[in-house]
Structures are given as C-alpha cells and as structure tokens.
Amino acid sequence: MPMRRAHLQLAALAAVPVVVLAVFFVLPVAGMVHRGFVVDGRYDPGAVLEVLGRARVHRVVRFTLWSSAAATLIATLLGLPAAFVLHRLDFPGRRLLRVVVLVPFVLPTVVVGVALRELLGESGPLGGLGLDGTAGAILIGLVFFNVSVVVRTVGAAWEGLDPRPGEAAAALGASPWQVLRTVTLPALRPAIVSAASVVFLFCATAFGIVLTLGGLRYSSVETEIYLLTTQLLDLQAAAALSIVQLLAVVLLLALAARLRQVPDPTQRRVVPRPRPVRRSDLPAMAVTAAVVALVVLPMLTLLRGALRVDGHWSLDHFRALRTTGGDNALAVPVTEAIATSWRIAVDATWMSLTLGVLVAVVVTRRSTGRVERRVRGLLDGFFMLPLGVSAVTLGFGFLITLDRPPLDLRDSPLLVPLAQALVALPIVVRTLVPVLAGIDPRQRQAAASLGAGPLRAWIDVELPVVWRPLLAVAGFAFAVSLGEFGATSFLVRDDRPTLPVVIVRLLGRPGADNYGMALAASVVLAVLTGAVMLAVERLRVPSLGVL
C-alpha cells in the first residue's frame, strides 16, 4: 500500500509537466520531423538519408564539431583560473566582476554578434587584426558567450570544496601545483566535464553568433536549419539535421547526468571562506583579467557605437527609441517593444518556475524501488531535452503544429511565454534539484510524524531552504526570457515584437539611424539583463542551473 501511494504521488506530481512538455515540446518537434519525413502523404525516409550524404551537410557538421570543440577547450582553459579567482579569492569588486562575466550568457546571441562586429570590424578598435568574417571571429564569439558557464559551474563546485584534503597534502610536503593536480582537479573533474559538455552543447546550437559573424562563408547545424526552414523550405534536410542535433543532445545530457553528483544530506562539509590574494595567484588573476577584458571590450564598443552620431557624442540614438525608426522600419516604437518584452518575461518566469518546482520535487523524492528510481531518472532526462534542442526547430514546430483546432494558439498571448518558459525550464530544474536533494529526508519524516501534511511539511522544512535559490532562478529565467530570440522570432507578431526581435529588424534595414537605434536598443537590453543578474548575485546562491 505505501508503495502504491508513492507511485500515485509520483504520477500526480509529474502529470502537469509531462503533459505540458508533450504538447508544447514533443508535439512541435515531432511535427517538424514529420514534415521532413512525410512527402505528399507518403513516408519517405530515403530522402532524409540522401540529405545526410550531401557534401554541404558534411561541411556544416564538420564546422559545427570543430568550432564547438575548439571553443569549448578555450573557454575551459580560460574559465578554470577565472573560477578560482572569482569564487575562492576575496578582493574588492569580486561580486561585480562575477556579474560582468555572467551577463553575456543572457544576452541575445545576435546582439553578441553585433557587438563583436563592432569590435573586430575594419573601423573597430581591433579591426587591424583582420578577424572580421573569419572562423576566428566565430570562436571569439562562442568563447565570449560561454566562458561564464565554466566560471559559474566550476566556481560553484570550487567554492564548496572541502579544503582539508588539500591542506593535508600540503602538510606532507606537496607543492601548490601538486595539490592542484593530485587533489583539487580530481575533485573538480565532474564539474569540469559537466561544464564542458554544456558549453559544447551551447556552442553547437549557437544561432545568432554564427549567423552574424559567419556571413555566407560559415554555417553551423543551427544556422543551416534556419536557412533550410525559412528560405529554402527544404524541410527534409531540416528534419535530418534536427534528428542529428537531437541525438547529440541526448548523448551529452546522458553524459552530464552520469557525472552529476547529488549531495549527501547526511554528510557535513567544511566550506572554506574566500581567502586574500597571494603573490602565487597573480597568473590566475592575469587570466581572469583577460576574461573580463574579453567580456567588457565588445560591450564598451557597443556603447561607443550607440553614443556616436556623425562623429560626435550624442544621445540621439537613445531618444530615437521612442520612434519607429527611419522610413518606419518598425510597426511600433522600441519603447513599446521593451514593455512587451517585460510582460512576456514575467509570464515566462512564472510558467518556468511552476513547472520547474514540480519537476524538481519529482526527481528528488526518495524512490521506493528500482522501477520508481528508473522512472524518475527517465523523467529527469526528458525534462532536460529543451536545453539543447534548436530554438529554431522549436519555434518553427510551434508555428506548424499549433495552428489548427483544438490547439490553434497563433493569436494567444501565452504562446511566446510558453516557448521561452521551455527554454528556461532546464535551468530552473538544474538549480532546484541539488537544493532539494540536499535536504535531509529525516526532517520531512520528523515533520510527518508530528502530524504535518505534505503542504505543511513543505512550508516548514523545504521553503526556508529553497526560497533564495527560487528567487535567484526566477531572476535568471527572467533575464533569459528578455534575451531569447531563436524561437521568439518565429512566433512574435509584428505589432507586439520583443526587444531582441526589434534589434534584428533594425539591423536588417538600411540607414545609419536604424543601425544606431539597434546599437542603443542592445545597450538597453544589456543594462536590463545586467541589473537582473546583479540582483541575482546579491542573493548569494552558489549555483544557477547549468551555470
């Protein structure tokens, strides 16, 4: 009877998120794949296999693998010293620098691409390097966007690392390098590999960076799916690439799941306080300065471009945000798009939090048997799938599957927030799972023995532990929603655009005024996301999802 009751509770908690993902993730992705495999009402898998044999597809896959692997290696090598400095050392401005390093991750990838074009272009501060339009520019963009993943993930693990094994090794005569190589790095290996796998995943699905910096010469799987679906209408090729991408995502998520360590709630750990900077820390400080420069230089160049009008300093581009741009480039003023983005982000945040809390509770409750444990593991992997599936595929799937009764949601104001909530859901889950898993189950048992029901036990035992991470991940989901572009670009209406969509539309219209407005709007978006992330950082939550 108790086992049956546990199974019923598991089914009840999992029902809502499973139904939501089935309707708003599985159905759109399956609809996209169906369009590719079924031609004129006939199942034709041979055409998709023919696509995978094309020389261009081979080039696209090779470039995606090469650029993702190279960017992952560089981001990891830069991120490890920065993680140590920003999470284990104590110096003025450390918290602000952590926010600065994190902000690019929540910026739209298209904006990141534009900022780097401003930096690396012929008239930019680093134009003399000749990197504009090269694979090197794409690598810089991918590292710029993803180094924060390594800093945050490894930094959180480093911050909570028990210092006693390293101190014991040092007391036995080990040098600092030997302690790092034989004690610290092995302890951090799960976090490092997990961060690297997520960085590779994000690099392989980076849309705006490759689209903006690669031009016509370079294309990744993500940009190729976009080209095939929106311009060439070659859905078979898009379906084939989507399947390849989905399989890669499943493998990477399975690897991350095997390496993820669930905290033991009965084990007490000694968490060290940040220590002052020593002379031996100078090399790591130098690498951290390089990481900060990599983040700050493009953003300063972006700000400079927004403030320069006809060779003079001016706020005219920011004042123009109250208009629809030159030659009425937009249907609504940019300020209205800012308000729309804010409203959508609020809806996307409460949706992702509601689903994320349910999922986190489902996957962290103690299993009563092998079958239940396996079901929870499968559910955990299922809810992580939106993490790496192409936002372009998801948005296009929404467009072609949710356009007829009983799911005709084309005019629903909740369509865009739903898509953005799915993008943020894995981050919410990955933040709350370790927090809930770290609660000693004996506390829940004690509350139940005193007569507390499930809701009362949640309020008394879990809410005091989870409220700060919950607020932090709400801020992060809000920032991600503000900057989401891939799926939103397919779904948003012309009269209700979001700020990232407006920026891209301004960039696509001729005229210096429209370009200047795009730069000014990008600065506004960077400031908004930066302010949100600064508030999140003040909550002092050790880890944020995949970050």
Automatic annotation (TrEMBL):
CDD domains: TM_PBP2. The chain crosses the membrane at residues 63-84, 96-116, 136-155, 191-216, 236-259, 282-303, 348-365, 377-402, 414-437, 470-492, 515-536. The keyword tRNA-binding does not apply. Residues 61-256, 338-536 form the ABC transmembrane type-1 domain. Pfam families: BPD_transp_1. Keywords: Cell inner membrane, Cell membrane, Membrane, Transmembrane, Transmembrane helix, Transport. It is found in: Cell inner membrane; Cell membrane. PROSITE patterns: ABC_TM1. InterPro entries: MetI-like (IPR000515), MetI-like_sf (IPR035906). It is a multi-pass membrane protein. Belongs to the binding-protein-dependent transport system permease family. This is Iron ABC transporter permease.
